[in-house]
Amino acid sequence: MKINSPLxxxxxxxxxxxxxxxxxxxxxxxxxxxxxxxxxxxxPPLVKEKKxxxxxxxxxxxxxxxxxxxxxxVGDRAANIGGDDVLYRHKLTFFNKTKMFFDVADNMDEAAxxxxxxxxxxxxxxYVGRNLLLDGVAIRAASNDPAKFAAAVKKVVENTELxxxxxxxxxxxxxxxxxxxxDKNPLLYAxxxxxxxxxxxxxxxxxxxxxxxxxxxLDGLKTLAKTFAEAGIKDIVLDPGxxxxxxxxxxxxxxxxxxxxxxIMGDTEIAYPIMAMPLTAWMAGISDPxxxxxWETVLxxxxxxxxxxxxxxxxxxxxxxxxxxxxxxxIYTDPRSPVAVDSKMYKVGTPDENSPVxxxxxxxxxxxxxxxxxxxNGINCWLLAVNTDGIGVxxxxxxxxxxxxxxxxxxxxxxxxxxxxxxxNSVVIPGLAARLQGDLxxxxxxxxMVGPMDSGRLPGWMEKNWPPK
Amino acid sequence: xxxxxxxxxxxxxFKDVEVLALEGVTIExxxxxxxxGLGGGFDPMLAALLGQESAVLAQHFGRLAxxxxxxxxxxxxxxxxxxxxxxxxxxxxxxxxxxxxxxxxFSNIEEWTTQxxxxxxxNTSADGGSRGKRVLVGGEKxxxxxxxxxxxxxxxxxxxxxxxxxxxxxxxxxxxxxxxxSPGEWAKKNVDKFNADMITIHLISTDPxxxxxxxxxxxxxxxxxxxxxxxxxxxxxxxxxxxDPEVLARAAEVAEGERCLLASASLNLDYAAIAEAxxxxxxxxxxxxxxxxxxxxxxxxxxxxxxxxxxxxxxxxPTTAALGYGLDYAYTNMERIRLAALMGDEELTFPMSSGxxxxxxxxxxxxxxxxxxxxxxxxxxxxxxxxxxxxxxxSLAIAGNDLFMMMHPTSVAVLKHITQTLFGTVEAExxxxxxWIGSGV
Lengths: 469, 441
Description:
The complex is a heterodimer of chains A (469) and B (441).
Chain A: H1 6-10, H2 26-34, H3 44-48, H4 53-63, E1 69-72, E2 79-82, E3 99-105, H5 110-122, E4 125-127, E5 130-132, E6 136-140, H6 146-159, E7 164-167, H7 171-181, E8 187-191, H8 196-206, E9 210-213, H9 218-230, E10 236-239, H10 246-264, E11 275-276, H11 289-305, E12 310-313, H12 318-332, E13 345-348, E14 357-361, H13 364-376, E15 381-386, H14 393-399, H15 404-414, E16 426-429, H16 437-444, E17 447-450, H17 458-465
Parallel strand pairs in A: 3-6, 3-12, 6-7, 7-8, 8-9, 9-10, 11-12, 14-15, 16-17
Antiparallel strand pairs in A: 1-2, 4-5, 13-15
Helix pairs in contact in A: 5-6, 6-7, 7-8, 11-12, 15-16
Chain B: H1 7-10, H2 44-49, H3 64-68, E1 118-121, E2 135-138, E3 156-162, H4 170-173, H5 183-192, E4 198-202, H6 215-228, E5 233-236, H7 244-254, E6 261-265, H8 271-281, E7 284-288, H9 293-306, E8 314-317, H10 327-342, E9 353-354, H11 363-366, H12 381-399, E10 403-406, H13 409-423
Parallel strand pairs in B: 3-4, 3-10, 4-5, 5-6, 6-7, 7-8, 9-10
Antiparallel strand pairs in B: 1-2
Helix pairs in contact in B: 5-6, 6-7, 7-8, 10-12, 12-13
């Protein structure tokens, strides 16, 4: 972004405070443009009225992120990569979480290929009210045979909605894959110093995004990117090479830093998303698969944090994928978003007067963890989110934000009458807040049952302890 | 995955980073967290298990505004000539005739003007102590592993020892079971078998709610550890704010002249007493706050101005939260602290330490399977814990952390290997990437 204050954006707006965008004033809308929570397209007069056309174009140019955003695939699961404006997440937020593409090869037998594609598509890990997913399939032309590659690409796109990367340095092979997947907006991997003309022509002909590749050669990489940009190719992804070990890995880390710093600082010739390839861990001569998976996860972690926008990965072992998806979520979570849910009584499933009553804190991570543990196991109940200023159970119990008085206060404000709305006159409290038991019995006038230390154990606990005798 | 692999084998690949083989560390059993004996109430043992800092993990979440409330300049000034290239994709091919050469330019960050304080831990005989080596942390002039300036000191790992048998995740416990009743033997094993750079002795039994061990008794444990190993040591209390100053002061006294790291001074206890003990008996102070940069500045300021602790005796612990459980705050807090320090905030120019062991508090690291039916298979838990500790630590290494307090030997080995690779001291066979597409990855 070339501007950073709402006032600068305001100059290009209609300044009529018409309210059509949903904001009371044009200045309020300008603030949303600057923090990237709103887009110029949300301002109807600016878009519709001809007299604003010039201003709109100029504003869009000023607001464009420093790093180009590139879209791979089509439909709901299309993957956006790049689009960043800062080097450190606290300075704004990072946009477009690092996308994880897992590999298949065109020499796999068909059943195994389909099974792997489905596994990639179906992966999910619940986290704070949503699922963490994998993002795409990278198809390796291991055979270097156009017909075989086309057949594999066909199988993949028939079996998933996820975007794909077509991987070959052979233009004839890439073209065969493109013919099969041309309406899926695949990412072409890759143009290098030997094949750039042919691959560039393919990118232009099929209007698809393309990777330029130059291993540990930033001049070469920039030259390719510039050449493609001048030829009219907009959607470029950079592959500086991912060396998996030793000095090569250190060089790779340095290359990623240099590219992103230059891009954010305004060097538009290199301001594109970067591809990391943690799957090269499997080429590093590591003897056993667990160690190789671990090392791949280590590489994925390094380049999730330092500027990898799309990754090609191999290990589908859960101990590799789970930390990978969690770390991407960690680094790309918007640091400006609230971390608390509303303090109120929530229904989990379809509770009635015999259902248990529980409480937890309004820290979003805690609340969603407890809620999903209950819902996933079919436990119908009442769940109160006590206002602890968004602090978790253990810390709040120690720090006084979760006390008998606070719990009573949240019950009172929720409108839920524990003496009337349920018949059992009991409350189940978090095991980590067990110290509140006596005080709570006095304050609430109900039986207080101490639940497990971790809400993951609630199903077993309920079996043993509910209904109360 | 059919093949059963010993996690110990993993360390074979780390030979060239002075990692000793972890013989016989087969991890295949039950690693349910052993929470028995915790009783009904809040139990400081659990707090200790999760690392002392998570006992009060997070008034911070309420203070996010102070972390993120001040918007910083967005982006960079435009460089004039470089408007986005005009594009008309409809033009007829061939458009690609010749390469247009372009040279990549890179400039260092000019605002990074200030060097992080270098802090030594441990006194050798030359310094008047009995340690076999001295550990140096800090001294950076750039973010970790950045090309702007070479990093003077590699990351260091101190492995935890507790002064009593405690509940641990089984994957961790299996490595220590036979030494858990002897802090000296435990410390020895950490150094001899697991390549610890340092030892942290946690005096958790001193908590009145645990065993209420007297400061005098606790000090004996410290002496035992100092005699058992010759690496520098950190000395931790129980996290009880009333008792810790007394316990740490007594420990400092018996460890006089060894330059230990006293853990920790914090705003909610008598930090002045700890600072005084550090100065009187020649030790360093760990300045611990809870994910709050301003509190960290305040405590550091008090240690320096009020207690006269010299700059080369302060290390900060800005708090570590586990991957999936607040690591985003811990990461950003450290990165902000380090950036502010490099740009000249003299109240933050200190090396940092992380209670990486906290990663074992994440359910993903120890629970047998997902409590949620909808989740994809979580896989064998014996492999989840160590990688959870690795990723938590590695993230913070990149954010600027220098010293890691850790527990699982495999986690220690892998964290050392990656941080030393990025540091630049690991040699490896060069890998030819040209044929990655066709290789049997």
